[in-house]
């Protein structure tokens, strides 16, 4: 197999936390690049999991770890709200795309409609529920 994911290091070394802090930067280009980097990381991790034949209907371990790190680093708080409330349509669209990438398994899997903490919640789905909340 030989594939080694970079996402574990990205989470453990604080890379996700740094990108999340940049979402709230005053500079529009910095915000845009940080948001795009986080979205691309999530999307690429999901694509790799799919290509490797992992069950992505709920979560891959690295995908969930990235989303959890974003939530824990404040990436779903005021910085995301500022993107969504922007008067610039491109910025608001970027915020919508980022939010969708965080919760996509909830949107694409009807089994995930159960509340957080439910004993029937599918395994691995809790990071996405936390991001949605």
Short characterization:
The protein is an all-alpha fold. It contains seven helices and no strands.
Helices, strands, pairings?
Blueprint: H1 7-12, H2 15-23, H3 28-51, H4 61-72, H5 78-84, H6 89-108, H7 126-132
Fraction of helical residues: 55-70%
Q: What's the story with the biggest beta sheet?
A: none
Strand content of the residues, in percent?
under 5%
Return residue spans where pLDDT drops below 50 for at least 5 consecutive residues: none
Q: Care to count the β-strands?
A: 0
Quote the average pLDDT: 81
Key terms:
globular, mainly alpha, 7 helices, 133 residues
Describe this structure in words.
This protein has 133 residues and is mostly helical. 64% of the residues lie in helices and 0% in strands. The chain has seven helices and no strands. It has helices at 7-12, 15-23, 28-51, 61-72, 78-84, 89-108, 126-132. α3 packs antiparallel against α4.
């Amino acid at each position: 197999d030989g594939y080694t994911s970079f996402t574990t290091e990205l989470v453990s070394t604080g890379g996700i936390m740094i990108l999340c802090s940049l979402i709230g930067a005053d500079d529009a280009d910095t915000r845009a690049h940080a948001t795009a980097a986080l979205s691309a990381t999530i999307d690429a991790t999901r694509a790799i999991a799919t290509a490797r034949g992992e069950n992505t209907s709920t979560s891959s371990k690295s995908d969930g770890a990235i989303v959890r790190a974003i939530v824990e680093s404040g990436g779903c708080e005021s910085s995301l709200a500022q993107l969504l409330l922007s008067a610039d349509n491109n910025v608001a669209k970027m915020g919508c795309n980022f939010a969708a990438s965080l919760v996509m398994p909830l949107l694409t899997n009807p089994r995930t409609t159960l509340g957080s903490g439910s004993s029937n919640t599918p395994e691995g789905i809790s990071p996405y529920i936390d991001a949605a909340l």
